[in-house]
Design a protein that fits this description.
The structure is a single chain. With 142 residues, the protein is an all-alpha fold. Helix 1 crosses helix 2.
Length: 142
């Protein structure tokens, strides 16, 4: 993946702005997901075929994680080590989601589809953030 197609998606050619936008989008999507899990753990759990307690715990974690990513996105120059941690956490989440689906979870069809889709989305955020970080690191400081 190169930064050029991502520039159109991020609507900027500035790698630092691109990086911050991808972090902000990740925070928004993750935060919305976490809040939904927290607020509607029972109904969502029944629909997805996953325990409400698990969804509530995941919701709490995702909400805190989203806040941390949002704070990182708000920085003018997010530190590379912190962005790398977000990329690695996103990749771990995507992988663990698929492993949990294969080995542990017994969701409904909707839950299985949701798990795969959210894993792909999170992996996509990781790829976009990694590419933008590399582009930002290659550009001289302003």
């Amino acid at each position: 993946m190169s930064a050029t197609p991502l520039a159109a998606l991020a609507r900027t050619t500035d790698p630092r702005t691109m990086l911050r936008r991808f972090l902000a989008a990740d925070a928004a999507v993750t935060g919305a997901n976490g809040l939904a899990y927290l607020v509607a753990a029972g109904p969502l759990g029944r629909f997805l075929g996953v325990g409400a307690g698990l969804l509530a715990a995941l919701g709490a974690f995702l909400t805190v994680y989203a806040a941390a990513v949002a704070l990182l996105a708000a920085r003018g120059r997010p530190p590379a080590w912190a962005v790398t941690a977000v990329v690695e956490a996103n990749l771990a989440w995507a992988l663990l989601s698929l492993v949990a689906l294969a080995l542990w979870l017994g969701p409904s069809t909707a839950g299985a589809v949701w798990t795969v889709l959210q894993a792909l989305t999170v992996a996509g955020f990781a790829a976009a953030q990694y590419t933008a970080l590399r582009a930002a690191d290659d550009r001289p400081a302003a």
